[in-house]
Amino acid sequence: MVIKALNRYYDILAEDEKSNIPLYGYSNAKVGFALNISMTGELLDVIPLKVEGSKGKELVPRSMVVPEQAKRSVNICPNFLCDNSTYALGIDNKEKPQRTKDAFKAFKELHYQVLGSAKGQVAKAILAFLDNWNINKTKEHPVLKDCLEEILEGSNLVFRLDGMTGYIHNDLEIKRLWEKYNSRGEDGLVGQCLITGENTLIAKLHPNIKNVKNAQSSGASLVSFNAPSYESYGKTQSYNSPISKRVAFAYTTVLNHMLSNQKQKIQVGDATTVFWAESPEEIYTDFAAELFNPSNNQEGKEDKSSYKRDIKVQELVKEVLFRAKSGMRISDIDGKINEQTKFYILGLSPNASRVSVRFFHTDSFGGFIEKIAQHYKDMGIAKDFDNKPANIPIWMMLRETVSPKSSDKEAIPLLAGAVMRSIVSGSPYPVSLFNAIMLRVKVDMDDKDKGIQRVNYVRTAMIKAYLLRQARIHNNKKLEEVLTVSLNEQSTDTEYLLGRLFSILEKAQQDANPGINATIKDRYFASACATPAAVFPILLRLVQHHISKSDYGYAIDRKIEVLMNEITKFPTHLTLEQQGTFVIGYYQQRVALYKKSEKVEKEKEN
Predict the structure, then answer these.
(1) Which of 372, 415, 471, 566 is the most buried (most CB within 10 A)?
(2) Torsion of CA 286, 288, 290, 294, to 10 degrees
(3) CA 188, CA 202: separation in Å to the nearest integer?
(4) Same domain, yes or no, for 88 and 173?
(5) What percent of the chain has pLDDT over 70?
(6) Are residues 266 and 252 in the same domain?
(7) So what's the pLDDT on residue 461?
(8) What is the Cα–Cα distance from 475 to 287, expressed in whole angstroms?
């Protein structure tokens, strides 16, 4: 299913001239230099091809479409017309002279196999270069003198014929001969492709997948068999999963294309996640990227991508989310968007020399938008500070599941995958997410210097979203009515009222002792949340002392009285979900109290 969807997307992009995706038999490679040769094969000079990196501080190899690169491990395996100095020049700094000599020999043999029948001068020039090049005198060559050190760092090299535009690998005759050579199978094995159903050449090895976070930098395989225990019916390697050479090329090429594109991927825990629609139009991926991480979240965001988002898309997403939160139907998004277009989300996790599928989701684009919009609506809660994001992105949610004092800030991989699945499918949020957040609320202690707040905006929004979906699924109207965006003064839910009461008791203490470092929350919050009957009588006796010292004691006393009239008794204990309601009541009351205090202060100033 995954490979079939990727293969389909490759075909769509291959037909679109704007996509710049390599065609069959070619791939993208990082190239540092071009070797400029004469018609007789003499090396005339070396042309640097490095460009400014994304950070703009250093030069990096240029991305270029070249003949398809071979998959290497420790074996000698040359590439055609684009390779490093070991193969192309017979020199490196690995101190293995015999292997280096064998690598250059293999490079030369490959080019004779491909270009041996060539008639043109361009092909003859490259063969003349290989015939005349003396690997024993490479270091002394005057042309290489100034750039040899950089070349030995491992940059790929391509070839250019002096006096002609472009590079040798783009010559029409050479491209025709390469495509003819590349169409052969490694072992010539013909079989039925699992994806297309055609009888064609089967790929022995699939190209590597690159740019998956924490996977091998040289790339890792999505499909591979490297031990007899994984094989069956006498088949070896990827013949156990018969996929044609073209399909293997297509799915890996389009996957690498997306993984190299910052606006078409996000990081969800350990899963590098790509997304695409069955359309060449960029509006789909731009829209999805903005939905996953709305632009009003960009300040302090985790994703440090350098691309600039389309202002029109930003405004469109903002309107869609506003309509969703207002209870309006989402329709007629934009004339360029077909809501019935298929949309895919794929999460890839590192696993030794392989990558594994963490999650894979398929939906219509309209269905995807509705579920993401519903997620943001469920997460909606009053902000304690105006600079907080209106729509909380996934990475910010996952960050709250990890101890702020931990050196490892990565969320548990299984949890991250489960959260993503629940969001894009519209299913209940995982219980493990709720448990992780409640644990942080109980265990963490407020620390202004380190920016730690046990009950904060993001955590409370997650608790509210979890409980709201549970209430909706189980048709719990009473709980659903409690879970509003801002303070619900009409609610008579005991747990919610207890949370509000605790917030008022804490405010009374802070009013009586301005600038106090530790409040009743530091000592009593966890126990008040779990066993109210054991804690609240103590706090109510203590608050009378605070009220007597406070300038606003009468107002606080009236608020306590109103809540106590609604609370018939203090429960001996609360379930974890009831504790979640307690936290929401505490947070919303605290926000309301401080918003009112800010309003009073502004009125005094005026």
Answers:
(1) 372
(2) 180
(3) 8
(4) yes
(5) 93
(6) no
(7) 97
(8) 33
| Cross-strand pairs, 67 | 26
Q: Are 412 and 315 in contact (CB under 8 A)?
A: no
Q: What one-character-per-residue DSSP string does 38-95 give?
A: -TTS-EEEEEE--EE-TTSSSEEPEEEEEEPPPP-SSS----SSEE-HHHHTS--SSS
Q: Does 479 map to a domain?
A: no
Query: Are residues 393 and 297 in contact, defined by beta-carbon separation less than 8 angstroms?
Result: yes
Contacts of 103 (CB under 8 A, 6+ apart): 76, 78, 86, 87, 90
Confidence check: pLDDT of 606 > 70: no
Q: What 3-state class would DSSP assign to 226?
A: coil
Q: What is the pTM of this model?
A: 0.84
| Residue-range definition of the domain harbouring residue 585 | 490-605
Cα–Cα distance measured from residue 88 to residue 135, given in angstroms and rounded to the nearest whole number: 10
Q: Which one has a higher pLDDT value, 352 or 320?
A: 320
CA distance 266 to 259: 9
- 104/85 Cα distance (integer angstroms): 9
SS3 of residue 447 by DSSP: strand
The pLDDT of residue 599:
53
Per-residue model confidence as pLDDT tens digits over 38-57 = 999 999 999 999 988 766 66
Residue 480, in any domain of the structure: no
Q: Which residue has the higher pLDDT, 7 or 594?
A: 7
Distance CA 390, CA 582 (A): 23
For 405-454, write each residue's pLDDT tens digit. Answer: 888 888 999 999 999 999 999 999 999 999 999 999 999 998 888 888 99
Neighbours of 470 (CB within 10 A): 19
* Strand pairing report for 190-192 and 51-52: unpaired
- The Cα–Cα gap between 465 and 426 comes to 12
